[in-house]
Amino acid sequence: MGSPQDSTDPLHTLPTPVTRAGREALEAILAKPAAAVIGLDFDGTLAPIVPDPEQARAHPGAVPALAALAPKVASVAVITGRPAGVAVRNGGFAGVPGLEHLVVLGHYGTERWDAVSSTVSAPAPHPGVAAVRAELPGFLDGIGAWQGTWIEEKGRALAVHTRRAEDPQAAFEALRAPLTDLATRHGLIVEPGRMVLELRPPGMDKGVALTEYLRETGAESVLYAGDDLGDLPAFAAVEKLRSDGVPGLLVCSGSSEVAELSDRADLVVDGPAGVVGLLAAIAARLG
Q1: CB 200, CB 108: distance < 8 Å
Q2: Residue from 280, 228, 277 nearest 5 by CA
Q3: Is 73 helix (H, G, I), strand (E, B) or coil?
């Protein structure tokens, strides 16, 4: 596991990954940036975690760092569980010079927004989401959900947050099994996160989205940065690509809440500020 590094200063020396695979991947990205894809989670990686997800906004340095880096690489892909349009709005990505090579893969890749067309493409929504949407409030009341637990509407998914509950972890653990049963009845799955349980359609995750996008772009190297359990499939996808000879750098946006991610990372940085610093340092190194 790497240790957090203070890279909030764009002029900060580019941090060195603690693993050989990570160092080789960083070298590959720097040697041939036009064939590299930079993959990034949004919440907790580009944007600080806040009590109300609707108030989440990208770190102030995120867009400048991305605008400096994106023209020098094959693409920057923001891969998020949020609707693509929400991530674009909260990230401030639309209409920014330099971000022509940026795409947002929303709802774990089900939706796609690209900066060139500024449009979102997506298939029809899963019918199970509408069924759960109608049933969920009464379901939570019926099982005596903790005061402070609340539902986030995500369009193609629904999320039950426990961070505001009196005992967030106890509420999270108590709700996990019954929400999984509810999701299964309607053909959905439950994606656990940092004090949140998301009910969403199966068959798509950040690993699938990242792998398909890398195949589409013909990428020869990849960096992926994330902070939560939902990023583990993307980490696994990069590890699989490395076994196939594609260099990949795994970055954890540091959090004491998700040791599973930091333990597998080649580099741990200090939250969104650290991610922004890393991206800016790579852009500066590329000149």
Answers
A1: yes
A2: 277
A3: coil
User: What pLDDT digit, counting tens, does each position of 251-264 carry?
Assistant: 999 866 678 899 99
Which residue in this structure is represented by tokens 């798509």? 204
Within a 13 Å sphere around the CA of 15, how many CA atoms are in the beta-carbon half? 29
pTM for the complete prediction? 0.81
Pairing of strands 221-226, 248-253: parallel
Look at phi and psi of residue 250 and say left if phi exceeds 0, alpha if psi is from -120 to 50, else beta.
Answer: beta
Sign of the C-alpha dihedral computed for residues 251, 254, 258 and 262 taken in this order: positive
Q: Which two tokens stand for residue 84?
A: 């693509």
End-to-end CA distance of the chain: 30
The residue to which tokens 């500020």 are assigned? 273
Kind plus residue range of the DSSP H or E element containing 260: helix 259-262
Mean pLDDT over 129-133 rounds to 95
The residue among 80, 141, 89, 160 whose CA lies nearest residue 118 is 89
On whether the CB atoms of residues 261 and 227 are closer than 8 A, the answer is: yes
Check residues 31 and 165 and name the one with the higher pLDDT.
Answer: 31
Classify residue 77 by its DSSP letter: E
107: region left, alpha or beta (phi > 0 left; psi from -120 to 50 alpha)? left
